[in-house]
């Protein structure tokens, strides 16, 4: 099936953080693609990817990057698709640099910014699925079931490790 969500990341080193986004989309049976696209090291790849995303049939983008994390913002500058930004935890500044780089967009070019790290990646995928579910009742049911399973998995009392 043609991918509906594009997951892009600035580096191979970001994959560990972004992998849960892909896993959630797999669980929800949302067709998606995963690419390394660096705003700084492969700017032409970024331009080509983001500017052609809509015409290729993608409906939303999830973009993760760390440090001077310009990938989500530049992708948002090149497409009107919804872009969800995931700050990757950097070694030196623990991802605060990534978060601020992604969240502080100028008015008019939105990036929906998530939490730093894997929780942000997971939530980006859930948001992307929520957007798609607006027009896809079957996906809306799968999403509701996913959330219910999460609720059901929470024990009432803590157990010892
Ligand atoms: C950013 O620089 C990437 O998104 C990554 O989080 C960070 C470090 O990249 P590597 O030096 O590990 O390739 O562009």
Describe the structure.
The chain has 161 residues and is α/β, with parallel strands linked by helices. It has a single domain, classed as Rossmann fold. It contains 6 helices and 5 strands; from the N terminus they run βαβαβαβαβαα. The protein has helices at residues 15-27, 43-52, 71-78, 96-103, 118-133, 137-152, and strands at residues 5-9, 32-36, 60-66, 83-88, 112-113. Strands 2-1-3-4-5 form a 5-stranded parallel beta sheet, sandwiched between helices. Helix 1 (15-27) packs parallel to helix 5 (118-133) and helix 5 (118-133) runs antiparallel to helix 6.
Strand content: 15-25%
The global form is globular
State the end-to-end CA separation: 42 Å
List the total number of helices.
Answer: 6
Portion in helices: 40-55%
**What series of H and E elements makes up the topology?**
EHEHEHEHEHH
Largest sheet: 5 strands, parallel
Task: Please give the radius of gyration in angstroms.
Answer: 16 Å
CATH top level class name? Alpha Beta
CATH topology: Rossmann fold
The beta-strand count equals: 5
Order of strands in the sheet with most strands: 2-1-3-4-5
Q: Could you say which structural class the secondary elements and strand pairing correspond to? A: alpha/beta
Bound molecules: 5-O-phosphono-beta-D-ribofuranose
EC number: 5.4.99.18
Pfam family, one: AIRC
Function: Catalyzes the conversion of N5-carboxyaminoimidazole ribonucleotide (N5-CAIR) to 4-carboxy-5-aminoimidazole ribonucleotide (CAIR).
Pathway: Purine metabolism; IMP biosynthesis via de novo pathway; 5-amino-1-(5-phospho-D-ribosyl)imidazole-4-carboxylate from 5-amino-1-(5-phospho-D-ribosyl)imidazole (N5-CAIR route): step 2/2
């Amino acid at each position: 099936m043609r991918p509906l969500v594009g997951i892009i990341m600035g580096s191979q080193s970001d994959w560990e953080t972004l992998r849960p986004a892909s896993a959630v989309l797999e669980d929800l049976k949302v067709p998606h693609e995963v690419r390394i696209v660096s705003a700084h090291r492969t700017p032409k790849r970024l331009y080509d990817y983001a500017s052609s995303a809509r015409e290729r049939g993608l409906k939303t983008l999830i973009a993760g990057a760390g440090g001077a994390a310009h990938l989500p913002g530049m992708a948002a500058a090149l497409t009107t698709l919804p872009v969800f930004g995931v700050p990757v935890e950097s070694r030196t500044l623990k991802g605060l640099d990534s978060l601020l780089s992604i969240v502080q967009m100028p008015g008019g070019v939105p990036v929906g910014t998530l939490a730093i790290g894997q929780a942000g990646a997971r939530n980006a995928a859930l948001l992307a699925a929520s957007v798609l579910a607006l027009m896809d009742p079957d996906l809306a049911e799968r999403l509701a079931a996913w959330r219910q399973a999460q609720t059901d998995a929470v024990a009432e009392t803590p157990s010892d490790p």
